[in-house]
TrEMBL record:
Keywords recorded for this protein, A-Z: Hydrolase, Magnesium, Metal-binding
Required cofactor(s): Mg(2+)
Protein name as catalogued: ADP-ribosylglycohydrolase
Molecular functions per Gene Ontology: hydrolase activity; metal ion binding
InterPro entries, A to Z: ADP-ribosylglycohydrolase, DUF1810, Ribosyl_crysJ1, Ribosyl_crysJ1_sf, Rv1873-like_sf
Pfam family, one: ADP_ribosyl_GH
Species classification: Bacteria, Pseudomonadati, Bacteroidota, Bacteroidia, Bacteroidales
UniProt keyword Transmembrane, yes or no: no
Keyword Flavoprotein tagged: no
Organism encoding this protein: Prevotella fusca JCM 17724
PANTHER family for the chain: ADP-RIBOSYLGLYCOHYDROLASE, ADP-RIBOSYLGLYCOHYDROLASE-RELATED
Ligand binding (Mg(2+)): T34, D35, D36, D213, D215, T216
Cofactor note: Binds 2 magnesium ions per subunit.
Length: 406
């Protein structure tokens, strides 16, 4: 299921700014989850909570979760359904049925169960035969990949049971392919992106490179690719961090039920690895004890919120929100080191922060880092650093991002 979320987030930046090349940035400042992710997680919550797998239970969870994210990018017909007091299916053949189906294929204990659940998940809105077929085709491809089927076996099954032509080549489709939201014109393309791929990331890049409804095509291709290849940890971490705490909780509960929840979904270990490489943390601590920063380590020793900086390091080592900051402090090694080096900085309270940090830019980064951790643990060393060097003035961008008053 995380494969669908990754595909959605990667493709989101290119849906209305199509690229026809595989060589593009996987993540940009515009990368975000869309309705594809929200509805995929609504289906996951349905499977986790509603043991009867009733249509009524699915509608409830889709409407409840969907209304929490009203600007996620729903189509007009679905938006009306979302807020209807008596929602009825509206005979759609759109790809909304296929983009949200992946949880049922990871949940199912048999191919028949995957097909049955896929039908239920589609019919509550997309009860057009093509809408149901698209959901069943994607679900079967995922289930077969999970079960160890080869690409040729998956291709044969889909062709024989759903009559999609999978003998085309993406290079032949790409030049004239245009935006289309129907299952008929996106599901085969998503499956072909998986079939031609050489790995998970390659499947996502192929799907996006077609253009058109790139986030949804990549979500479908990514869900099949996850079942076949697995998901690279770095991609999983980046996309997990872009979810809200509420959406993460649904994902966590589903993966817990499936017995595949990651022990460290934020990949907090990346900070320890960076700090240990070349003895970087000890070097940073010595510099702070001397009162003057001279080498480059700010991103992974005093992390700030993701998005405040634009460099690759700032993005990779940026913390998603207060939840990830709490997770950071819950790590005994990182907790001890952050307190130790913050106190080392505080020992120079009679000096200028730009001198201690080596530049105005790094002084600003320290301020944003201390503001974030002070929000998690007020009245502690982080607040003392802010008082000593910044007259108690916190970083306003950080406060706005975490929803605190400026």
């Amino acid at each position: 299921m995380l494969g669908a979320i990754i595909g959605d987030i990667v493709g989101s930046a290119y849906e209305f700014n199509n690229t026809k090349k595989k060589d593009f940035h996987l993540f940009t400042p515009k990368s975000k989850f869309t309705d594809d992710t929200v509805m995929t997680l609504a289906v996951a919550e349905w499977l986790t909570v509603d043991k009867e797998h009733s249509k009524e239970g699915l509608v409830l969870r889709m409407q409840t979760l969907g209304r929490q994210y009203p600007t996620a990018g729903y189509g007009g017909s679905f938006m009306r359904w979302l807020y209807n007091q008596k929602p009825e299916p509206y005979n759609s053949c759109g790809n909304g049925s296929a983009m949200r189906v992946s949880p049922v294929a990871f949940y199912a204990h048999s191919l028949d169960e995957a097909l049955t659940l896929a039908t239920i998940s589609a019919e509550v809105t997309h009860n057009h035969p093509e809408g149901i077929k698209g959901a069943r085709a994607v679900a079967s491809a995922i289930y077969l990949a999970r079960a160890g089927a080869s690409k040729e076996e998956i291709k044969t099954y889909v062709e024989e049971n759903f009559q999609y032509d999978l003998n085309l080549q993406l290079d032949d489709i790409r030049p004239t392919y245009v935006y289309d939201m129907t299952c008929q014109k996106t599901v085969p393309q998503a499956i072909l992106s998986f079939l031609e791929s050489e790995g998970f990331e390659d499947a996502i890049r192929l799907a996006v490179s077609l253009g058109g409804d790139s986030d949804t095509i990549a979500a479908m291709a990514g869900s099949i690719a996850q079942a076949f290849y697995g998901v690279p940890r770095k991609l999983a971490t980046c996309c997990y961090a872009l979810l809200t705490p509420g959406l993460r909780a649904i994902l966590n509960d589903f993966e817990e039920m499936m017995g595949c929840r990651a022990a460290d979904p934020f990949d907090i270990e990346r900070f320890i690895e960076a700090q240990n490489a070349g003895n970087a943390y000890q070097q940073a601590l010595e510099e702070m004890r001397r009162g003057h920063k001279t080498t480059h380590w700010i991103w992974y020793v005093f992390p700030q919120l993701k998005g405040l900086g634009r460099s690759v390091y700032a993005q990779y080592y940026g913390l998603a929100d207060m939840e990830e900051a709490r997770t950071y402090l819950a790590c005994p090694v990182l907790n001890e080191r952050l307190y130790e080096i913050s106190n080392a900085v505080l020992a120079h309270a009679d000096g200028e922060v730009e001198t201690v940090m080596g530049s105005h830019v790094d002084a600003m980064k320290l301020r944003s880092s201390m503001t974030l951790f002070d929000a998690v643990r007020p009245n502690d060393v982080f607040g003392k650093v802010l008082d000593a060097f910044y007259h108690g003035n916190k970083d306003e961008r950080t406060l706005r991002e975490i929803g605190q008053n400026v």
